Amino acid sequence: MDSNSTRTRSTDASFSMDDFAKALEGYDYQFQKGQVVQGKPVSYESDGAFVDIGAKSPAFLPTEEASLRRVANLSAILPLGEDREFMIIREQNAEGQVTLSLRQFEIKRAWDRLAELQDSNQSLQVRVTGVNKGGVTVDVQGLRGFIPRSHLVERENLDALKGQTLSASLLEINPDTNKLVLSNRLATRSASFSQLEVGQLIEGKVTSIKPFGVFVEFDGTTGLLHINQISKNYVQSLPALFQVGDVVKAMIADLDEGKGRVSLTTKVLENFPGEMIEKTADVMAEAESREGRARKALLGE
Question: How far is CA 287 from CA 127, 271, 278, in A?
């Protein structure tokens, strides 16, 4: 092999390695896309701010990435010298500068908070921002969520909900697809359940009559007065005892918050078997005075 060609290849190799080393010097591998870093704003530009994150070059925060909401004055939300956390959304350019985002960091933090709320079955307050035929769109801590019509307490006049604040429970959370589905109905039911207890006397209105019992609505909750819980004697005809709209007083016999069920009973209010069938008005009129005895019977005291 020719010695000159060997020397030429060695020289070429050494040059390429030198070039590679120089290229590496300008790149800081500790700053990667998606990473959360600590930094301090050091100066403002017309389209953003420079931020010191401890890199060779100041990082840049574009104005449109400064907040979940529109920013009119960057200095008002990002004072110079104030320590903040940012997310890197673009890795280093030729000058070794990374691009930062407060907006993306806030979005990530909002999704994390919502996941925690869902795990603990907590409800939250959301603001209705729009209406469509399927339900309403809502602002959820800066994120866009959706409540289907079937999960609204008010299902008829959706336009009246615009701008209103509603309680909502989380049904589905998917940060990858930006899917955020909530339920106003479940949150309202959960709040109602927290006020209820077995052995409590309630007063409500009959909303429907079925072969197996009557449904009674009270304080935003619906309970079932099963046909076997109406009287200690056999009830032959429910329509003979109740009509839709009738006011009924009953005791809470059982609660199942997971399934949203409230079981009611009136037979514990009877002074004798069959009284609810023969003298319904008397039982209803004297319900409060019989409440203590009925509660003890339900709780086994």
Answer: 41, 11, 15
